[in-house]
TrEMBL record:
InterPro entries xrefs: 6-PGluconate_DH-like_C_sf, NAD(P)-bd_dom_sf, P5C_Rdtase_cat_N, P5CR-like_CS, P5CR_dimer, Pyrroline-COOH_reductase
Protein name, entry field: Pyrroline-5-carboxylate reductase
Pfam families on file: F420_oxidored, P5CR_dimer
Record keywords: Amino-acid biosynthesis, Cytoplasm, NADP, Oxidoreductase, Proline biosynthesis
Similarity comment: Belongs to the pyrroline-5-carboxylate reductase family.
Species, as recorded: Desulfacinum hydrothermale DSM 13146
Domain of life the protein comes from: Bacteria
Enzyme type, top EC level: oxidoreductase
Binding annotation for NADP(+): 10-15, 72-75
Biological processes, Gene Ontology terms: L-proline biosynthetic process
Residue ranges annotated for the Pyrroline-5-carboxylate reductase dimerisation domain, each copy included: 164-268
Length: 270
């Protein structure tokens, strides 16, 4: 269904822009096939100017022009957006929500009966086609709808179909995950600076170390523990660093962060 579809974005903030940019860079759709509506005129002007996408003057115009509608507003704005959108969906578009925590049932109940809905949890590395998304289908979403949604999100990274009950956990893991990785990356860089390395060099070394380590997992298929053991010489430097991380409870702290974010996602759904 994507071959001829116009894809509408309601909400063109951080995540909306990451998807727009990623989809265009991947060459999946031409800019004239992307229509955007945002309450912020500034955002609309930015998106139109930066990417050449079509700007809709109203939410209804965006919905009416689109066979696939990606709703990318904050969970708190979902109620008003769905209410405004409902009368503009007689053409039965596929509605894709990326809002954290908002259950499919809530979205379906706010729209006319029979509208296909897919709930997705993407993440910001979609901006550079390195996103990670999980998708769950609603009552009326058929295989063609899921295939179209998977094609969209796979154009900007990897995507898995999952049962909806796991989407809050995905939100806590890979949805919020880039922030944890950036926090770690920033701390590691500060560690280098603390030891006297100029910041730009420390940043470069850290980014390459994180990227190289992730690629090593993917390309060797080995367990992270095995790869960690390769770095860790008996009585050497690494084991002394690891001892500090274990004493400070970093592993438990990271697991706790995923749990806290998952619980927050559940709470956002009401
Ligand atoms: N950021 C992330 O890493 C991720 C976010 N998400 C989800 O994506 C959604 C968007 O998040 P994010 O992009 O970070 O949020 P942003 O606040 O950056 O973007 C939302 C945009 O929608 C606009 N908006 C608000 N109300 C309306 C409306 N009624 N109609 C049209 N546009 C409206 C906002 O304008 P204004 O600012 O003026 O209100 C803003 O420009 C959220 O539901 C979030 O849970 C999912 C995965 C990752
Ligand atoms: O922080 C948030 O609520 C959103 C959802 C996942 C990432 N950012």
């Amino acid at each position: 269904m994507l071959d001829t579809a116009t894809v509408g974005f309601i909400g063109g903030g951080n995540m909306g822009e990451a998807l727009i940019r990623g989809i265009l860079q991947a060459g999946l759709l031409a800019p004239e096939r992307l229509v955007v509506f945002d309450v912020s005129r500034e955002r609309l002007e930015h998106l139109e100017g930066a990417y050449g996408v079509v700007r809709a003057e109203t939410l209804s115009a965006c919905a009416q022009a689109s066979q696939v509608i990606i709703v990318a507003v904050k969970p708190q704005n979902m109620g008003e957006v769905l209410e405004s959108m409902a009368p503009s969906t007689p053409h039965r578009p596929l509605v894709i929500s990326i809002a954290a925590g908002v259950p499919i049932q809530t979205i379906e109940a706010a729209l006319p009966q029979g509208i296909p809905v897919i709930r997705v949890m993407p993440n910001t590395p979609a901006l550079v086609q390195q996103g990670a998304s999980a998708l769950a289908r609603g009552t009326h979403a058929e295989d063609t709808h899921m295939e179209a949604a998977l094609t969209l999100f796979r154009s900007v990274g990897i995507a898995h179909e999952l049962d909806e009950k796991l989407l809050d956990a995905v939100t806590g893991l890979s949805g919020s995950g880039p922030a944890y990785v950036l926090h770690f990356l920033e701390s590691l860089t500060d560690g280098g600076v603390l030891m006297g390395i100029p910041r730009p060099v420390a940043r470069d070394l850290v980014v390459q170390t994180v990227m190289g380590t992730a690629r090593m997992i993917l390309e060797t298929g080995r367990h992270p523990s095995q790869l960690k053991d390769m770095v860790t010489s008996p009585g050497g430097t690494t084991i002394h660093g690891l001892e500090v991380l274990e004493k400070e409870g970093v592993r438990g702290a990271i697991m706790g962060a995923v749990r806290a974010a998952t619980e927050r996602s559940k709470a956002l759904g009401g």
